[in-house]
Write a structure and sequence with these properties.
This protein is mainly alpha-helical. It contains 19 helices and no strands.
Length: 389
């Protein structure tokens, strides 16, 4: 096995921080963006849906067609596309152009993230895999701690466009570090559109992958509209919303790190079942707001910990099932993340329009119950490892 470069994991972690900020910064700027563009929070939330749908469609295809290209070039290309998309969004004169920027951003992220995960997993032994993947996706968690709250504060203070300018500023050093620290010509078994077709034809594997969508879909019913929910029920403005988003990020970091350790010790099945049950218990409390500020912050830490802890367990599960087609399966899993975000955001928008913000917690808990059933069903239907031919 090729020895992994010393700086590989830190560079991939930082780059995923960039991806996390650029992807989810919309959540913290829904109100200022909606006010500036004269649209409702529910309609502004559709920008996340556009990003999610584009990611789900483009990521597996882009990963497949670039399977014979060196990993350094692919990751640098993905980050370059992501930076250009942020630039286009910052300069967008209309909602249509802003949506176009989100599509380009989804394409860049969809190219980078699964390739980064597959690269990290391939260079480390199986017994370290869950912890390594947790570290690679640690950047997403830190984005929740620093990036999304900072983007929210910037959007409320200076305007939403400056949030995208901050993503442009972060993209440039990340591209340079990928080019410097990822070895040139780093390749594994190449993937093709035929590999993608083989995985898509394995219905048991797809059922396992789509658990990611149902779990995160339930989460995003609430998370997408957290800012307007806090404004209406708790009376929070810029500082209050930013604080809760920061606390959410702290929980995400703790959960992400704990997930790798739990998965290595307990296995993916018990880890994922436990997380679903915790979410079902916690989510309805958000429909009972207002509560005391301390109670809200404590609830949010625990909710975020148990929500963001699922990724290392799910990815470890899928890599173990996928065999040599792990890159394609991880691309589909990354796409499933955004399918879940898209569906969850859409359901949350529907709930908001028809039942009000106070119904979001109950709706999310119902979605998580569906995710638990999905997990138990897919765990019983152990998929066969895709063929390498």
């Amino acid at each position: 096995m090729q020895a992994p470069p010393k700086m590989l994991i830190p560079v991939l972690t930082l780059s995923n921080f960039l991806i996390g900020v650029g992807a989810f910064i919309i959540i913290g700027m829904l109100e200022p963006l909606g006010t500036d563009l004269k649209i409702t929070p529910a309609h502004a939330g559709q920008l996340l849906t556009v990003y999610a749908v584009a990611y789900a469609v483009l990521s597996p295809v882009l990963v497949a067609v670039t399977g014979r290209i060196g990993r350094r070039r692919v990751m640098a290309l993905g980050l370059s596309m992501f930076g250009l998309a942020a630039l286009a969004s910052a300069l967008a004169p209309s909602l249509l152009v802003l949506n176009g920027g989100r599509v380009l951003a989804a394409a860049g992220a969809g190219l980078f993230t699964p390739v980064a995960a597959a690269t990290a997993a391939a260079l480390f032994p199986p017994e370290q895999r869950a912890r390594v993947l947790a570290m690679v996706f640690f950047g997403f968690s830190v984005a929740q701690v620093l990036g999304v709250p900072a983007g929210s504060w910037i959007a409320y203070t200076f305007g939403w466009r400056w949030g995208f300018w901050s993503v442009v500023a972060l993209a440039l050093p990340c591209i340079a570090m990928i080019w410097h620290h990822v070895p040139a010509g780093l390749k594994f078994q190449p993937t093709t559109l035929r590999d993608l077709g083989a995985v898509l034809g394995n219905l048991r594997m797809i059922l396992a992958v789509l658990f990611t969508s149902t779990f995160l879909g339930a989460t995003y019913i609430l998370y997408t509209y957290m800012a307007p929910l806090l404004s209406e029920t708790m009376g929070y403005g810029r500082d209050g919303v930013t604080l809760v988003l920061a606390v959410t990020g702290v929980g995400a970091v703790i959960g992400n790190l704990a997930s790798g350790l739990l998965t290595d010790r307990l296995g993916w099945r018990r880890t994922l079942v436990s997380l679903c049950i915790c979410q079902i218990i916690l989510l309805p409390v958000y429909s009972l707001l207002p509560v005391a500020n301390v109670q809200l912050l404590a609830l949010t830490v625990i909710w975020s910990m148990t929500g963001w802890a699922f990724m290392a367990a799910q990815q470890s599960r899928l890599i173990g099932l996928a065999g040599s087609q792990a890159t394609v399966v991880l691309a589909l899993n990354a796409a499933a993340i955004y399918v879940g975000a898209a569906v969850g955001s859409a359901i949350g928008g529907w709930v908001l329009l028809h039942a009000g913000l106070s119904a979001l917690g109950f709706a999310a808990a119902c979605g998580m119950a569906v995710a638990l059933v999905h997990l138990l069903l897919s765990a019983r239907m152990s998929p066969k490892v895709p063929s390498t031919t």
